[in-house]
């Protein structure tokens, strides 16, 4: 459908209109390394004639997908741009390839801004492009809910609401201050949750943080989310009623099980407590210096790449324990 994928190149300018008609942009010709409009037609996978009465035969899904390809390219060149790894065109192209294929693969969510931050480590750690794609696809099975947006809600809205509840319980003074500033919806924490702190921590620390988060949250039944839906449902039904050993679970999951978190709603992800931990560390500065939401955003942006992953996880675990205790007493 678009032979530029896998060619070692990528685009940052649109190649078609919303009606599916080709755009012969000189930038696209240069990026695709083709010297004529016929070359763009070839890359669009079409043999469209130039007569005005000729209509495009692409499906709506294909048109929509091709309309996202240049946006993916724009995001790719902005991703981890301080790392030497992405000084090579071939590595930028790999990232674009995987995100472009995923945009077609995930019929429901497609591509959204922020996915490049999550995919980038896969490209760097796995030389084989196919391996990197499937690791990213499995990661997105866990996180794609963050990117699912409707007219009424954003993907991480529930987590932001939970963050507000947690802060209200463990740091009511800070919560009240944020509400007074008009930040009671906690949208300033949107990015942290959306891309799992990739921009708040250094590259190495963000990977270290992911490892610790997933180890702390580990549940032996976690594999179910990686199975095909029908098979997952069947295995889930078989496991119902069985007593699960706490020894098999991560420390965070064990705390949830002790508090009876599994009997009611699904437990809160540790990422929410990580954000709460960051807010707690910056609470003095937020209380004394923040006079508006712009100040809140600036204070939190100033920590970019300057946080300690181990300290953040330790702080999150302490807040989690404190929250469970207060919630139980309440």
Tell me what you see in this structure.
- It comes from Olea europaea subsp. europaea.
- One of its GO terms (molecular function) is GTPase activator activity.
- InterPro entries: Rab-GAP-TBC_dom (IPR000195), Rab-GAP_TBC_sf (IPR035969).
- This protein has about 325 residues and is mainly α.
- About 55% of the residues lie in helices and about 0% in strands.
- It has 16 helices and no strands.
- It has helices at about 25-30, 35-45, 60-75, 90-105, 115-125, 130-145, 155-170, 170-180, 190-195, 205-215, 230-240, 250-260, 270-280, 285-290, 295-300, 310-330.
- The longest helix is centred in the C-terminal third of the chain and has 21 residues, at about 310-330.
- The radius of gyration is 23 Å and the shape is globular.
- The relative contact order is 0.08.
